[in-house]
Structure formats: C-alpha cells, structure tokens
Design brief:
The protein is mainly alpha-helical. The chain has a domain of 68 residues. Helix 1 runs antiparallel to helix 2 and helix 2 runs antiparallel to helix 3. The protein is elongated. The relative contact order is 0.13. The mean pLDDT is 88.
Length: 99
C-alpha cells in the first residue's frame, strides 16, 4: 500500500507555488481581456457587415484596441470593460437607428 503520510507541498523540493499562482492569474487575466476584445471585434463586424456602417465599425475596432492594450500592459481589467461597454453602446444605438 502507498504511504498516506502528511503532504508537505510547501516544503517540497523544486516547488515554486508563488510562480504557479502568478502564471495562473496572468492566464486568467489574458483570457478575460481577450474575450472582451473578441466581443468588441464582433460588435464592429456586425456594425459594418450587417448594418453597413463601416466608419463606426472602424471606430469600434480602435476603441477595442484602446481597451485591450492598456488592459494587458497594466494588468487591469477596467480599460477592457470600459471599451466593451462603449462598443456595445455604439453597436446598440446604431442598430436602433437603422430601423
């Protein structure tokens, strides 16, 4: 049978738990910012391709980049959320004014 002694993870040789947590937090942050950026690109494509407003679509693409780049560099999610909301509002009001 296997020895079921106490697991001493923090004292194991070669263990760098702090680096593991940092890598995980970086991955989750990158994933969140990436998902928000892809959503803004989708808003831009729908605004340009479906509604025919390519100038507004280009504006949405630029706003999305202005949210994603600082969000990735500063490790903050606020710029990405702000860009997402602004792009969504442009998309929504363009859709409402088209009808």
């Amino acid at each position: 049978m296997a020895d079921h002694g106490t697991v001493e993870y923090a004292t194991a040789t070669g263990n760098d738990y702090a680096a593991h947590e940092e890598s995980y937090e970086s991955f989750v942050h990158f994933t969140l910012v990436g998902i928000l950026y892809v959503a803004t690109v989708m808003f831009g494509l729908a605004t340009g391709g479906v509604m025919g407003h390519w100038l507004l679509a280009a504006t949405i693409f630029v706003i999305g980049l202005l949210g994603a780049i600082p969000g990735l560099l500063s490790r903050a999610t606020t710029p990405s959320y702000v860009a997402f909301v602004i792009c969504f509002l442009i998309f929504a009001f363009t859709g409402l004014s088209s009808h």
